[in-house]
Amino acid sequence: MSVANFDGDGTGDTSGLVYGYEDDDTGDTEIRKIIRSGYGHIGVSPGDVEPMSATKSTLDDRLPERSLPGDPGLIYDYCGDDIPGFACEECGCPRYIGSTCYNPACERCWAAAVKSKTIRSASKLDALRRDLYVNDYNEREDVDFQHVVASLPELLVDSDEPVKHAYKILKVLLETKWGIKGFLAIYHPYRIKDEYRKDQYDHGGAEGQGDMTWADVLSSENPEEYIKFEPHFHLFFPSRRYAFDYSVVEAVERQSGWVFNRIEKKEDDDHRSVANLDDLVHQICYCYSHAGVHERESRNELTSVMKGRLHNISVLDDGTEEQVTASFCDAAPKLLGVRFSNVNESNCEAEQCDCDGECECEDDHPLHELYNQWDDGTTGLDNSAASSSAAPSFDESSPSIDDTSASHSLDGNTQASDQDSSSDSPTTSSRSVPNPVVTDRDACGGDLIPIREAGGLLDDGEWCKQARYSAALQLAFEEWEDRVDSDDSDEPHPGEAAVQRR
What count of other Cβ atoms lies within 10 Å of the Cβ of residue 450? Predict the structure, then answer.
């Protein structure tokens, strides 16, 4: 195998991308070179596809088979450990949540990886859509989201990273054939076998004959029984309405071998495959749920990329991420089999304090009992009072946020929602942190803030006198400082407000 792709212009950035594919009719290997530079040169332009009879490159690398999310069942000891996540602005009650490694190969935390990718991708796509509408089309053209499937299953390339090579080819085709400014590509190694598949969208392929969706496949005991290796890419991008012309699709297939099919709703087609931002979130979440997992030494990732202007676009601080997070929380139970709570829409559930001014109520937060027992050398609270996920010990061997194989976050999730978390959730410690239970009084109802912002409350002496659980918050905040670098200036984004429902 060569990794140089020699059929270029002799520089590091070759003028063309060479690839091959097996012709379905003849069985022969077709060789193509797609031009990606050349304006001003006689004879070629970017996007031109040139047939080749031979190549100096060694076309023996294929698109890879990769594991599905949650497979082969990797799980870290600290996944699900209770960590301080949020605090009430009114009473100070700290809220503990289960930690997650965000590793898509983790059988417990894979859905959190989908959540993170979905929220970031959908928010940036919406930012690009609005940027195109205002700056490219002067608010005179409708700009819609499109969802297109691109496939060339028998793709042959000369590269250690065949998927990256495919991304480059797709970028040239989308830019030059349809004028696409930026796109998200998600790599799928597999499709559900026709006899098992229930079609939710019209994708241009053979109709499914079964009743299984990817949520069913992923929750089955043996997913491999229901799938076949048939690699393809799901592409999401904003574009001017009618820009994705099907007459161009046929010409591109004849020239390049690549097949493009726009996802369409079964009920009708108005040249939009995505109705609105909520629909975009649902479709991206669905695609990430069965994306191939790229296993790396440093960190596993769901195989995807943002290309063109989408890569660098910034998300406006206008509530878009909050809307996307809410949409994801609505979609997750059906598409992932996991329930997330949106903390942006949640309030403190601790018992309301009726004191006027300085609080005289007892700070009876269970955290105090926990710390007392821990100091006595016992293992923690009685199991009858424990929550469903365990918290790690405070010794120096506990994993830190800078662990190279995974990182903690202010997020939690469990396995499929129909499972019993008390029996199936990983447990590494008997120490857990339940929340105060409301008895005969109303709940506090105060707004929740990230635990990293609690220092400002604790520095306010007057607030501490009025907040019933200020002492418990002090313990939780100090624990958070011990767990993470207190000088870290990264603020949790709205996506981190989606946490597992206990």
Answer: 17
